## 1
Amino acid sequence: MTIAIERIRNIGIIAHIDAGKTTTTERILFYAGETHRMGNVDDGTTVTDFDPEEAKRGITIYSAAISCKWQDHTINIIDTPGHVDFTAEVERSLRVLDGGVVVFSAVEGVEAQSETVWRQADKYHVPRICFINKMDRIGAGFERVFSQLSDRLHANPVAVSIPLGEGPVTNPQGFRGILDLIQMKALYFNSAPQGTTIDVQSIPEEELMRAEEWHRRLIDAIALLDDEAFSIYDSTGDLPAEQIIRVLRKAVISNQLQPVLCGSSLDYIGVQPILDAVVRYLPSPLDIPPVEGRNPNPKKAEKSESRTPSEKEPFCGLVFKIHVDEHSELYFVRIYSGVLKNRSRVLNPRTGSKELISQLWRMQADSREKLEEATAGDIVGVIGPKDAVTGDTLCDALHGILLESIRFPETVISMAIEPDSSADRKKLEETLKVMSKQDPTFSAKISEETGQTIVSGMGELHLEIISKRMERDFHIKMRSHKPRVTYRETIASKVELEGRFDRQNAGVRQFASVRISLEPVPEEPGISILYKMKPNVLPPELALIFEQALRDELKGGGLVGYQLINTKAVALDAEYHEGETTETAIRAAVADAVRQALQKVGTVLLEPIMKLEVVTPSDFVGNISADLNSRRAMIVNTELRGHLVVMIAEAPLSRMFGYSTDVRSLSQGRATFTMEPLRYDVAPPNTEA
Ligand code: GDP
């Protein structure tokens, strides 16, 4: 059965770790009817954390998509990780979701990582609603966190509910329920059947003034945003509920403001109103601009393509996640246009090959529903494709479109691994292939010099998790060597050169000549390849080979053997001889040009710089900052958060090995930290790379 597009919500639940994302998701899945047993994070039985490694660590690293139903709407929840070591995963989820529920703790409030995630959501223009959770805890403060939303995140919050009491639910003045500022009612959640029934009552007398004041703030925030609402407000001095909801929806979708709700997921208070708000205020796929891409045909590569979320358009979708286990590969696809049918073939424009859709699934919390087709706007699990990787487009073979792929940061750390027995070698290789497909921030290759298998990732924790997964899920016994920093190189200055290949072999001549330029672009990570040749200098297939060869050469390594990054390569010109200019000749000429260019101007060694956030009780600030200084770290910001101090620093990865043990001993085990790749910088002259 297909679903009307306007009744779909693709949302992410976004939060700083520990704010209560998992508990809130759990409760949502329970109320939205798909979970039969309510899970609990604290005993590792929740539904979204289906990876045992995550459940054990209590962090959700690998996103999954789960569908549930609320008021005749299908809500697809795309899981987003809360741990900053995995920002690429957060960005990947943000790319395919249409709206977000951002969960904050009423005690800890807006934390540095919430700021990171908020900024990422800004970057992708994701409309949001906020949920201030943990109202039941000692020290909970709704108003304090509410003002932090504008002060720290520069958000434009409007409260649609406020708490009735704050602090432990067992206290007479504790958190008892919420005041709905749109209906102007008090809602009490009956805890006996897990908050399933809601008691709607009049607002208690003693709370009426406070509720009216907040109601007024809500009306004032929205009345000016809409002509019709304004004229009603002007004549009556108030706005009826349906007007408030209508204007709020418009304003949320256009990112003008963010409704704020409150509750306690743990105590089953205020969760159903989140679902109501998702349906009311967050966009359906129809409210989102058409998806843009380019034509995959190299001859028409400059041509942009776009698809509106309609069943009538040709199919296109984006693979945003691959979940792999020993038995199957499940591809999570966001469908942007058209209809994806079971047992159909679709094009993967990156590889140019067709992929078979052999099964279509709607993934629910604890079951899967088999589908015959799925339509624009929806998110489904697909079995069948073989060569697609995360970030690939799938589309109608007759109407090609290449959506912008998801960008992942460069890996910064690598480690050699060896299977315990040589019998395991093949299995190891296959497992690594599967795992790197699933997690594009991780890669594996065999070292040409040593024959060892090298795995690379985003940090020590990332590699640790990967090793554990291989042992636990794929039953591979192996030894890991010490992790090492992955250095990079960049071209030292701009250079323009010609490369040639001219060989006679058994009377057959192979010939190519190419002109290229290489240029450092410090502000752009990765490599960019531009094709600036006059039309028809090369036939289209060879033009493509020219570009590919440039990319391969830069990836192949600079003078020291590390990949070149922050480098722009331009294909400028070529000489083509009919019958003699072959693919091999082009590749060899490009290799010659790049080699000469590197030798002529040289390369600069780059080292990865990490962004580090250390949270510590103030007693240990001195110890920790002295230690950071000794590691060539630069502390860029220090702020107070409650009784804790948060230090943000930038530090070279080469000096941060084993930091988790060191920071513990510097702080009697009290400080915590997160670290993620930030950028590559010029390495000091004496670096032994
Ligand atoms: P996540 O890291 O954001 O996914 O957060 P979790 O849902 O795992 O919650 C972190 C901790 O906070 C767990 O021990 C939860 O039981 C607890 N927690 C979650 N929501 C609430 C709440 O509303 N009130 C209280 N008191 N604790 C909560």
## 2
Amino acid sequence: MKIIIKKDYEELSKVAASIIGDELKSNPNMVLGLATGSTPIGTYNELIRMHKEEALDFSKVVTFNLDEYLNIPYSNPNSYHYFMEDNLFKHINVKAENIHIPDGNAENVEKFCIEYDKKIEETGGIDLQILGIGENGHIAFNEPAPTLPLETNITELTESTINANSRFFDSIDEVPKKAITMGIGSIMKSKKILLLANGEKKADIIAKILKNKVVTTHIPASLLLLHPDVTIIMDEDAAKGYLE
Ligand code: PGA
């Protein structure tokens, strides 16, 4: 596992975007795994800048998002469909038909989950997956649990995640309690993974993972210790506990 510590969020975002940009230049058809949340917004802003100022080309890129709330209208700014359009897709030249986001409104969600994994496989698998990390160690919506499904699945959000995500909603009651998430196996199959973490709130979980060197499904991100090509990029605040 490679660890990069940058001074602040802006520097972290620039490094992450430049790694993605380099990968994209060497493989214009790359399959890019995308995340939502506050963490990747700076990276997306930098990718947008690179597209506008440096002609970074997304025309052949295929994207797969990690997750989406269940039964949320996509006109809701808290839906991940809305988030991705607003924070990235409408600003770059990715083709609409190459974008994949779990469909929390699918008629048959179970069937959708199976097809989502199939689609990822058919494209040859994810070349580079961007991940954030929850304060409880979740990746995508793979929440701490005694066991974790490998494949894309419907999951219940934990109280910790509902609390953390309530900052985006008018009230905690409005936070959806269920979501579709790529499973741990789907994520671990990615050829390369970039895990981004910023801010003091992430310091404890990062320290636990990097210092304990133990894998447990109770900290889903700890499973990344088993992946052959993971880079953690964090700012000094998130690295505090690790550096202590
Ligand atoms: P955040 O969420 O980027 O908003 O902190 C990360 C996550 O929950 O995976």
